[in-house]
Queue: 2 jobs
Job 1
Amino acid sequence: MEDELLGVPTLGEIERHPMDELLRTERLPHIWCPGCGLGTALSCFTSALMRSGLDLDKVAIVSGIGCTGRVAGYLRLDGFHTTHGRAIPFATGLKLANDDLKVIVFSGDGDLIAIGGNHFIHAARRNMNLTVICVNNFNYGMTGGQMGPTTPTGGRTSTSPRGNLEHPFNIPNLAAAAGATYVARWTVLHARRLERSMYKALLRPGFSVVEAISPCPTLYGRFNRAEYGRDMMEYYHQRAVIRRDAKPWEVDIDLAGEIICGEFVDSERPTFQDRLQEKFGVLRPSDDLELLQRPPVQLEAPSGIELTQPELPAPSAKTAPVRLEVPVSEAPCVERTGGTLEVRLCGFGGQGIILSGRITGAGAALYDEREVTLTQSYGPESRGGACSTALIISDNPILYPHVTHPCVMVAMSQEAYTTYHGQLAEHGVLLIDADLVEPDPDAGQQVISIPATRIAEHDLGRRIVANIVMLGALTALTDVVSEDAMRRAILDNVPQGTEDLNNKAFQMGFDYAQGLA
Ligand code: SF4
């Protein structure tokens, strides 16, 4: 019988993915969560861009901050990852300086419609020659799932746990009312239509906007009983309807209603650049300033210094678990600060570090009845970077909330460890995630390895509760918060319906730590 697969290349024979051309594969794997729709949105975009025939040397991509903001870094184009909300003004500057460029803004709903909301409407009003791809996941994903400008009324988020009271922005209506010349909305379930709209938007002069509604299962989905990507896709499947004749003001998104998709505006009017040219002729600030003619900077070593890559130290062996020598409350670092304990919990965004801080603070303040301050820090690098929450716990009034030398630290990612471990007070204790952190053997610190992520993933089947496993270990090994207070605070703060899972996670971390030799 003839081999049906004759001529079809095997996986081994396929050396390159068709999209490798446009991706910075050296930066992969990406940081997006399983089930996130950003991969689909990016794939639609790369496909539309390749089909558009645009000269890739003259395409620039600009992103703001957030999970979507990572796109600029993954595309093998001239890319700019700008500050929060400023993608559009940055792109405007690029386009004005060099009108030969096709400038595309690829960013999220929070970045473009909240922090950058004013830039969005004014760029549409001017009809700046830009294409904007706005990935709308109904919340601020990267920074912990807070309510955003597009969260549907009633939608639950980390900052609206009982449901959003506000009316969300209708992005197509906002864009259309402000003057955009092409406006479309699709969910990532409509991959082909999304790709087609992106293609059209890329070739349309003026301010073109494509909204891509995309699942954020890790945060928005989890708060709204759709914790897997497929649940959100199912939701789109049930709720999305295509209405080509819909007016932009009719396409509000209502939690229990339809998600109306389609092309809502497809028109032409003079762009800002057209008017500029009409009035002043061809302006090329990039030429006037000789920005593009400058020779590339040659880095030369000062005489006598050789520019060589420093050798990285060989990775050390994992630190063996150790048990605390003295209770934290009696440790010299606490005594020195008059009984006031500083604690820092850190990791990468999405690990529940901020929630862990809230739980710890609530346990200490509400149930142990101590004075507590809580500060948080997460930046644009949050997912994959170092986010942190810091507490001061004391029996006395706390005059200043800044944590400088924590006596207890938990580090759940390498970057967070690298960023913060130097702050640990002498004789302090550092709990690390055994599989995610390689401690510096020369740091001379008391390190306790807890396989929190492994326990959460393998024993509980839910990586997301690794933070609660770690809180169990923290409670067993230190007296930061009493066991009863921590248990009660966990139940107060975890999403409804997950109490059993979180209880189990806490117990497993607690038992593991108690069992350390
Ligand atoms: Fe995607 Fe949400 Fe994860 Fe961000 S937090 S990568 S939007 S699933």
Note: The chain has a mean pLDDT of 87.
Job 2
Amino acid sequence: MEFFLDTANLDQIREVNDLGLLDGVTTNPTLMSREGGDWREQASLICDAVDGPVSLEVIGTTHEEMIKEAKDLVSFGPNVVVKIPMIPEGLKALKELTEREIKTNVTLVFSPSQALLAAKLGATYVSPFVGRLDGLGQSGMEAVDQMRTLFDNYAFNTKILVASVRHPMHVIESGLIGADVITLPYATIMQLMQHPLTDKGLAAFLADWEAFQAEQQ
Ligand code: E4P
């Protein structure tokens, strides 16, 4: 399973990259606006800092606007994946971008039927938002599971990129289902490596060793 970081923050990107855990980055207009400043400069720095796919999202809501923006976004680097919203105009743009061999990430996907349409039109990734579905009292992971079955039944190459992740169990469940990629907020990726028994165990090992060394003197 590939790990993407769901952020536009360069410090977080560099830190996770230094851990060797960074396979790619996803951004969205909210994450980009949180960083402030010149978004073009920020996008360019992110693309340079990441040795893997970087999703940059279009703002336009018509097919023509999305295509125009996509052409601009791909100029930021060879690793750019154009993020397109799951709306009818987005599907039109998706078809054209697939024909132009531009990589795409269909975002704001909440149902298996939406994922199926995106896969039929050749999306590189579909992003089911599991946390937002859970928040409505629906099962995000059940939707991902159905997407996996649909894609496998018809051998679609579209990758399932689990998004809107809220906690480590989303990561484990995604892995058990066989999702291709998961995009994680910085806090969740840090949570994955923590366990109180690890800290307690290490403290005990170090204390025992220190006592042993003191006895030797
Ligand atoms: C995905 O690419 C999105 O950026 C993201 O996962 C949205 O998640 P949220 O529900 O935390 O905003």
Note: The radius of gyration is 20 Å.
